[in-house]
Design a protein that fits this description.
Elements (H helix, E strand, L loop, with lengths): L3 H6 L1 H10 L3 H43 L5 H34 L18 E6 L12 H7 L3 E2 H8 L5 E2 L2 H18 L4 E3 L4 E2 L1 H7 L4 H4 L10 E2 L3 H6 L6 E3 L5 E10 L18 E11 L4 H19 L3 E5 L11 E8 L5 E9 L3 H6 L2 E3 L8 E2 L1 E9 H11 L7 E2 L13 E2 L9
Parallel strand pairs: 4-8, 7-13
Antiparallel strand pairs: 1-10, 2-3, 5-6, 8-9, 9-15, 10-11, 11-12, 12-15, 13-14, 16-17
Helix pairs in contact: 2-3, 3-4, 5-13, 7-13
Length: about 425
């Protein structure tokens, strides 16, 4: 959420930021917020003036009584003021609620290094690591590889849950949990604190953590409850310190969260949805940091290094993209995507890394103090990064490590988490389900 003082004092900066994002609807919203805020300040002044006048009349009435004069006219005037105050306060409070609602929907200020673009096709490549694997055979998709080994069942999952779900079996289940343990151990070695957060959130903290449109497009609501299944552990971790004041000496707080993620994926028609790439349920290891404002850009690069180290240790070819203004979304000030190479020669997103500056913290009211006992000095900054999403990491392993005999090599760092298994051959499937 933007600071109302920024909107008041530098509306042109906010307007230019929205223009970079190619969002005319938000430009109209900005104008509405500016007008509502002007009206709110007028009403605040009016309420204060009415209260001042009420106090003046009270004094004048007392003076007239002492002088033995008739105060009835002043009393009639004084009796009208409480109703006028109540009416003005009601309109003022309604104005402020509309201002706050508008501020919640205005996007974060972009970092100057975010490239201009209309959509993801204009994201800018920053670097690549490794080389695409060279095959002596026609490589297959991860769906073909996993299905031929009897490791995944989309048809039965669709029968009981609908499209976008799957049954993982045998070695692929082991691979899923090996990826989780690998990512956790890597980040624990760097001093991160492990968190398994709540898998459901109430609406108020969720509104602080994510774009409001996600309630219609992304989240699953628990019927009859003020609860939503989390789309990522980022959201429940972001809300962890809601309405708290943190001590500067305790910052940065580095966390690694592990959780299942649940996403409706409404509005993704036309996007790549094959196999494990875009599903309604998957596991993910997430990095999250709370920090002082002056620390956040250095820590943004730290998160990026951490995630790239994971891909490099797994030997997965990838590229890093600086996400453009038309694709970045409203929460982040800057975002990197990691895109893995797939067997069809296309790079597809497997994780993202966002610096949200004080945008989430302002919504969630998470502040910091410089010293114990002092008043809050400002809002913390929050950063989040997909360490590894297991579904897309498995996808990349199946496609980049496939062999001509139909098997799949297990990346060396994962073998100790899979009982020493070096190759996935589908041999753990005695019933051939």
């Amino acid at each position: 959420m933007l600071d109302i003082r920024l909107v008041r004092e530098n509306p042109d900066l906010v307007r230019q930021n929205i223009a970079r994002r190619n969002d005319p609807e938000k430009l109209r919203l900005l104008d509405e917020v500016i007008e509502l805020d002007r009206r709110w300040r007028e009403l605040t002044t009016k309420v204060n003036e009415l209260r001042r006048r009420r106090n003046e009349l009270s004094g004048e009435i007392g003076r007239l009584i002492k002088e033995g004069r008739d105060p009835s006219e002043l009393r009639r005037m004084a009796e009208m003021i409480p109703g006028m105050i109540k009416e003005a306060e009601a309109e003022r409070d309604e104005c402020w609620e509309r201002v706050r609602s508008g501020l919640m929907r205005l996007p974060n200020l972009l970092h100057e290094s975010v490239p201009y673009g209309v959509d993801e096709s204009q994201n800018v490549e920053v670097r690549r690591w490794g080389e695409p694997p060279r095959f002596s055979f026609q490589p297959r998709s991860h769906v073909e590889v996993a299905s031929s080994l009897g490791l995944i069942d989309f048809e039965r999952a669709a029968k009981v849950s609908g499209a976008g779900f799957y049954y993982l079996k045998n070695e692929l289940v082991l691979l899923d949990y090996a990826i989780i343990r690998f990512a956790i151990d890597h980040l624990l070695s760097k001093g991160y604190t492990l968190i398994e957060p709540p898998f459901m959130l109430r609406r108020r903290p969720y509104e602080g953590a994510t774009d409001l449109s996600d309630f219609e497009k992304v989240m699953y609501k628990v019927e009859g409850e003020d609860l939503y299944l989390i789309a990522t552990s980022e959201h429940s971790i972001a809300a962890m310190f809601m309405d708290e004041v943190l001590n500067a000496e305790d910052l940065p707080i580095r966390l690694v969260g592990v959780s299942p993620c649940f996403r409706r994926e409404v509005g993704t028609h036309g996007k790549y949805t094959k196999g494990l790439f875009r599903v309604h349920q998957f596991n993910k290891v997430e990095q999250f940091i709370f920090c002082l404002p002056e620390q956040s850009w250095t820590l943004h690069e730290e998160l990026q290094r951490n995630s790239e180290e994971l891909y490099q240790k797994l030997g997965l070819h990838y590229r890093v993209m600086n996400v453009c203004t038309g694709d970045i979304g409203s929460i982040a000030a800057k975002k990197y995507d990691i895109e893995v190479w797939m067997a069809d020669g296309v790079y597809r997103e497997s994780g993202s890394n966002s610096n949200c500056t004080d945008y989430q913290a302002r919504r969630l009211n998470i502040r910091y103090r410089l010293k114990e006992g002092q008043p809050p000095a400002g809002y913390v900054h929050t950063l989040n990064n997909t360490a590894l999403a297991t579904s897309r990491t498995m996808l990349a392993i199946l496609e980049q490590y496939q062999q001509d005999d139909g098997s799949v090599l297990v990346p060396e760092p994962l073998r100790k988490y899979m009982n020493g298994m070096e190759r996935i051959e589908g041999i753990l499937n005695p019933l051939k389900l």
